[in-house]
Amino acid sequence: MAWAARALLASILLLVLLGLYGRGFGAAAARGLLLGALRPWRVAALPVPVTRADRVLVWLVPAVLLVASRLVLTWFAAPAHLLVTLGGWAMFALVVRLVVGRRDPFHLWAVIGGVALLRSVLLLAALAGRGPGGYWFAFWTAPGLRAAYVTVAFAAFCWLFVVVAVVLRDRYGLRRASAVGLTLTAVGVPLGVLSALVSIVGLERALTVWNTSSRCCPGACPASSASPSTSASPLNSPRTPPRPGSPWPQPACSCRSAATGNPPDRPIPGTPDLRRPTR
Fold this sequence. Notes:
The structure is a single chain. By secondary structure, the chain is mainly α. The protein has 2 domains: 2-207, no CATH class; 217-223 and 230-268, no CATH class. The chain has 10 helices and 2 strands. Strands 1-2 form a two-stranded antiparallel ribbon. Strand 1 (221-222) and strand 2 form a beta hairpin. Helix 2 crosses helix 3, helix 3 runs antiparallel to helix 4 (79-100) and helix 6 crosses helix 10 (253-260). It is globular and about 45 Å long. The protein starts with a helix and ends in a 19-residue tail after the last helix.
């Protein structure tokens, strides 16, 4: 997964170079994304691209990279995480697209796609070292790195709302109060829909499914390979005994998995299988 993250980072670098120096196919879309991520107050002055390819690429490329980065983060095995993350992005984009109406949405897609690329770069840079296993291991064992990452990630999250309000005011002619209010409305719609979904499913069940599939919290490991239905998580089993024959306490198995890159129900390569008690 680390190599997949590096490959995605390399593709984003090529996109940046195309936006800075490129001409022709895709250059206008790349330039719009670059300005939308870093200098959204200049997006309003961009001319609308003549070619349909640029108007499609300006939202298609960030969408593909956003999905790919989240798939790498979750080992392609956490549909619950993808549903929450990508569903939130999609609903936010849909609401602000309805605000624009029949006007050309190129500049709107440029700022949203630019911030999506910015956040993907941050995530992929964290994954490029040792993949999602090393990412979660460092997240739970290095408080300094965790604080720095969360601070920058939250700033990038809030930056999305700033750039959308700026482009609604500068490009689409909304008053400042209207632009801010409609942006906050677009933020509230995904929160309301996802909260309603969680209330239907149940908070404990929703968090357990999400935590177990993404393996992000220590303790989210199956209690026994013979009975996967009795899964342990910080939500329903705060102190789970170790597996028979295993020297590791159950809450530590997620960190052991993160450090080695192996699923928690498999032994470390080169060591005896301790899942079965020895005679």
